[in-house]
Design a protein that fits this description.
alpha+beta, ten-stranded mixed sheet, nine-stranded mixed sheet, 8 helices, about 30% strand, globular, binds 2-OXO-4-methylpentanoic acid
């Protein structure tokens, strides 16, 4: 067995918390007092540091800045009514992180560094977890290549970090989206199922165009036929059609395997819903809307949680919904929240104490 490396911990003299109200924090704006940082060099992970949150000093030739070898995760920690802190499904994000690392030719991060590190860090920052509905402490583990040389090849050095951000809702109200006809997010054989920084950079253009027209996001379509729906901006997507719930399947490797997606499927099945993970065409969606059987559309994601979609457009065809009448998405959200905030027994063993 390889000996576990001890964490080197330095704490701040004074917390920044006294200058920030956690009552209404926007997503991703504030960062807690400490961060975790560890380097990978000479084929092994070095001592992990938990230290005051601070800027990094990086060489201009840094490989990640040129060739984009960079991956990340999004996880959340919650506080229950007694102030007990718990993290939602961190082992699932840990597994996905290492799948992303494998796809991007990056080293695997050991469980000791990822899981123990994030628990130690969150434990140190327990006061940074907002105790309020729809609020949480967003955990952002990430890794990037750090070779200092210009040349396209997998780096020999990497940096893994975890930073924490107290946060409120990502999408504050039901969303307006349209099915994207020109740009694509991902293609079979690509890396759409990796949580790689490049996937997000490549998606910005379409999102900016959508935002300028008053839409919140785009609904991505498959790259070959521009016919099958894939995922939506920062979320997986679900369609309640008739008495079934349909979500695009993961089999083509073009869609991120969301932890919240998996949790929503489980909770819907608990309630007796039939879930179909399969290809779903925009024509089938429009036909269901015309027939009055398309009941709800919602997205799932760590940041987005469960976000209702009140408008979907495809070309000139507009699908509008009165989300105040919906029952499925609100039920999934309230059941998931009850587990996250420790209000009901955690029957799926999703929560991990810090
Ligand atoms: C998340 O949901 O955690 C994400 O990473 C999406 C977005 C904030 C980039």
């Amino acid at each position: 067995m390889i000996a576990e490396i001890d964490f080197n911990i330095t704490t701040v003299l004074q917390s920044k918390l006294q200058n920030i109200s956690l009552d209404n924090v926007p997503f991703g704006k504030y960062f807690s007092d400490h961060m975790l940082e560890v380097d990978y060099e000479n084929g092994k992970w070095q001592t992990p540091f938990i230290k005051p949150y601070q800027p990094l000093s990086l060489d201009p030739s840094l490989a990640a800045l040129h060739y984009g070898q960079a991956i990340f995760e999004g996880i959340k920690a919650y506080k229950d009514a007694d102030g007990k802190a718990q993290i939602f499904r961190p082992y699932d994000n840990f597994k996905r992180f290492n799948l992303s690392a494998e796809r991007m030719e990056m080293p695997q991060v050991p469980e000791h560094i990822f899981i123990d590190g994030l628990r130690k860090l969150v434990n140190l920052e327990i006061d940074w977890i907002p105790a309020k509905a729809d609020h949480s402490l967003y955990i952002r583990p990430f890794m990037f290549s750090t070779d200092e040389a210009i040349g396209v090849k997998p780096s020999s050095k990497y940096k893994f970090l975890i930073i924490l951000s107290p946060t409120g809702p990502y999408y504050a109200s039901p969303m307006r989206i349209y099915a994207e006809e020109k740009y694509v997010r991902s293609v079979m054989g690509g890396y759409g199922n990796a949580k790689a920084a490049g996937n997000y950079a490549g998606a910005l253009k379409a999102a900016s165009i959508a935002n300028k027209q008053g839409f919140d996001q785009v609904l991505w379509m498959d790259a070959f036929e521009h016919k099958y729906v894939e995922e939506c901006g920062t979320m997986n997507v679900f369609f309640a059609i008739g008495d079934k719930i349909i979500t695009p399947s993961l089999t083509d490797g073009t869609i991120l395997a969301g932890v919240t997606r998996d949790s929503a499927i489980t909770l819907l099945q608990d309630e007796g819903f039939v879930i179909e993970e399969r290809k779903l065409s925009i024509d089938e969606i429009m036909d269901a809307y015309k027939a009055g059987t398309l009941k709800e559309i919602f997205g799932t994601g760590t940041a987005a949680t469960i976000s209702m979609i009140k408008e979907l457009r495809y070309k000139d065809f507009v699908m509008l919904f009165d989300t105040s009448k919906w029952s499925i998405a609100p039920m999934v959200k309230s059941k998931m929240d009850a587990i996250k905030y420790g209000q009901v027994p955690d029957s799926h063993n999703w929560m991990v104490a810090v």
